[in-house]
Amino acid sequence: MACGKWWKRTPKDENMLQSMSRFEAMRRAVAIVLGILAGALTSGCAKPLDHPEIREVLGEQVEAWNRGDLDGFMRGYWKSDDLIFSSPKGQTRGWQAVLEQYRKSYPTPEKMGQLAFEQIQISRPGEDRAEVSGRYRLKYPEGPRTGRFYLHLRRINNAWVIVRDHTVDG
Length: 170
Known about the structure:
By secondary structure, the chain is an alpha+beta fold. The protein has 2 domains: 2-42; 52-169, Nuclear Transport Factor 2, Chain: A (Roll), CATH 3.10.450.50. It is 39% helix and 32% strand. The protein contains 5 helices and 6 strands. The protein has a 6-stranded mixed beta sheet with strand order 2-1-6-5-4-3, with helices on one face. It is elongated, with a radius of gyration of 27 Å. The protein starts with 10 loop residues before the first helix and ends with a strand.
């Protein structure tokens, strides 16, 4: 009859089964929480840490702009005749033409103001492609100027560069 003992539940067996059920419930809860966190991190919900290589390009542009360094600011753009910059004023093609347009619009560091990027959203539709949207704020003594920007970046020669920039005031 020793074998029959395996089929009878004792209070000790019940406690063990309840402990296993609690353990299983806890394991499932942890798995669900980890799944939610993984989904949030991969869906773009984690702002400060997502795509640091893209944020670095934007950060270097802000630093150069705030130093009054247009050449440094332009390092974030693709140095190609196929670069496109568009705004409500029209479209400019080519790295050199975009630089000249910036020099015409911002001839001195005082005219450039102090730049900040805000509400940056980054998506990576491909391994070597990224799309960025956000707001810019230029701070001047007479008050700020703001707008939105939409960027398309590519990784070219192992460096992330802006290949298309659409910027609007407001």
